[in-house]
Specification:
The chain is α/β, with parallel strands linked by helices and 478 residues long. The chain folds into 2 domains: 5-257 and 460-477, Rossmann fold (3-Layer(aba) Sandwich); 273-457, Rossmann fold (3-Layer(aba) Sandwich), CATH 3.40.50. It contains 19 helices and 14 strands. The protein has helices at residues 28-35, 48-80, 87-90, 110-126, 139-149, 163-173, 187-195, 209-216, 219-222, 237-245, 273-280, 295-310, 326-335, 365-368, 390-394, 409-418, 427-439, 441-457, 461-477; strands at residues 103-106, 132-136, 154-157, 177-181, 200-205, 231-234, 253-255, 285-291, 315-320, 340-342, 356-358, 374-377, 399-401, 421-423. It has a 7-stranded parallel β-sheet, sandwiched between helices. The protein has a 7-stranded parallel β-sheet with strand order 10-11-9-8-12-13-14. Helix 1 (28-35) runs antiparallel to helix 19 (461-477). The two termini are 44 Å apart.
């Protein structure tokens, strides 16, 4: 539960509000002409009172519900051990000194932070050394950003979406532009950007079929809320048309491609690289990444079935998605009588064999996939929407996934058609697919290479998106 846009069904992914008036970097006319930013004074402006009414309704809901949410989340976090950025930081009581006139990039969690990292690397090639601030909502997203971007980027928790905190962060950063990764948008943030005349870009924008059908029914009410967007860079033509059908003018929507294809295999060594061979003792390795509650049991059941039929149990590298579940998953493994090694507690001496290596750290899963003969991507055997299969594919590792993959539908469609991914319905099917690929390594290898080709074919979005952002920003200054 999170009282951001995603907490309100009619505000998630595409609900924005605000008035595009006020002063910013450059004149409003230049901003409008070069970015497509609409203001009440523009020719295609919207009834000012409609956006204001929606904004005030949102503010009232946030103000009333926020104290309840904080109390509820504090209790729940204590019960399950979840880590969350301190509320004092999210209310923006203290801010580091930041160089003005840079970019503010908002990336809600781990996946979006990784997209932002690639954008920042490309921006550094186009405009070296420009100031950048990055906000993230989750503790894991912040940890990853601080680990990978420390020294280059000012990393901050996402401000609570109320006037005070959002105004304070805008006043401190004084950004040249706001870049939102994917489509979790905050109405107050967008309103404050519009009020200051700051252009807003969405990159890797997506709108699922379910969300689009729901929003289309209220498209008339949404139209004034969507006005503050300057440029929507979608992943594909389908997403672009959906945003246009919701009332965003065509010149503000363009296909940028999917930045997630632009991942580079991270070849830095892992502390435990040399130990994997001894733990596996000649057995194949299965990497089960980003698993959610209930999936670890299903994965271990599938591996148990292989052990019963073939007499050989593969080594499982198991990486739960959420850190607060690490201890619970460790208990589950031990209760099944399996030999466990935890990444956070590596043994001092050489351990001859293990059944499960629990990757209970942040930031190593992408590199761990290179050890796999087969990968399973979690969040897919439970109705969660799935996770990104491209990281193992980039290493040439074949992928198994459950059927719940709506969050990466177009990627999975192409990967399945290429023979790089197999979708399984349950633990029994997962065990059968694992058994087949592990017993026929040449078949698995061909599937992995097919995935690598899909990744290579779709590269280039990061460069295109960065070039478009730089072009728009240069247009403002001319």
């Amino acid at each position: 539960m999170c009282f951001c846009v995603s907490s309100f069904p009619l505000l998630r992914e595409a609900h924005l509000s605000g008035r595009s008036e006020g002063k910013g970097h450059g004149t409003l006319e230049k901003v409008r002409e070069s970015t497509g930013l609409c203001t009440p004074s523009s020719r295609n402006g919207y009834p000012k009172h409609m956006g204001a009414l929606m904004l005030w309704i949102y503010r009232i809901l946030m103000t009333v519900l926020m104290p309840i949410a904080i109390g509820f989340l504090a209790l729940r976090d204590r019960l399950i051990g979840k880590q969350r950025p301190p509320w004092s930081e999210r209310f923006v009581r203290r801010l580091p000194t930041a160089e003005p006139g840079g970019l503010w990039i908002h990336a809600v969690s781990v996946g979006e932070v990784e997209v932002a990292r690639r954008l920042i690397a490309e921006l550094d090639r186009e405009v070296p050394g420009g100031p950048i601030a990055l906000t993230s909502t989750t503790a894991t997203g912040l940890a990853l950003a601080r680990k990978n971007l420390a020294g280059r980027v000012t990393v901050l928790p996402t401000p609570v979406d109320l006037p005070g905190p959002v105004e304070r962060i805008f006043d401190a950063l004084r950004p040249r532009a706001l870049v939102l990764v994917e489509t979790e948008l905050w109405p107050e943030m967008l309103h404050q950007a519009g009020r200051r005349g700051i252009p807003v870009f969405i990159v890797n924008a997506r709108l699922s079929d379910v969300s689009f059908k729901r929003y289309r029914r209220v498209a008339g009410a949404l139209r004034p809320l969507l006005k503050p967007l300057s440029l929507v860079l979608t992943r594909d033509e389908t997403d672009a048309q959906r945003f246009k059908d919701l009332g965003i003018e065509g010149q503000r929507v363009t296909v940028g491609g999917n930045v997630k294809y632009d991942l580079e295999s991270d070849r830095r060594p892992l502390e435990w690289d040399d130990e994997i061979a001894s733990w596996a003792a000649g057995r194949p390795v299965v990497v089960a990444g980003s698993t959610l509650e209930g999936e670890e049991q299903l994965v271990l059941d599938a591996v148990e079935a292989i052990a019963e039929s073939d007499g050989q149990r593969p080594l499982v590298i198991l990486a739960p998605r959420h850190p607060e579940r690490f201890d619970a998953v460790a208990r589950l493994i031990s209760e099944r009588g399996l030999t466990l090694i935890r990444r956070s507690r590596l043994p001092d001496g050489v351990m001859a064999v293990a059944d499960v290596f629990l990757l209970d750290t942040i930031g190593e899963l992408a590199r761990a996939f290179r050890h796999g003969a087969v990968a399973f991507i979690g969040g897919s055997l439970v109705p969660s929407g799935g996770h990104n299969p491209l990281e193992p594919a980039a290493w040439g590792v074949p992928v198994l996934s459950g059927p719940w993959v709506a969050n990466f539908e177009e990627i999975y469609r192409e990967m399945v058609e290429a023979g790089a991914v197999r979708l399984v319905a349950n633990s029994r099917d997962l065990g059968a697919a694992l058994d087949q690929w592990l017993s026929e390594p040449d078949v698995a290898r061909r599937a992995g290479e097919a995935g690598r080709r899909v990744v290579e074919k779709n590269r280039g979005a990061t460069a295109r998106i960065t070039a478009e952002i730089v072009r728009r920003l240069n247009g403002i200054e001319e």
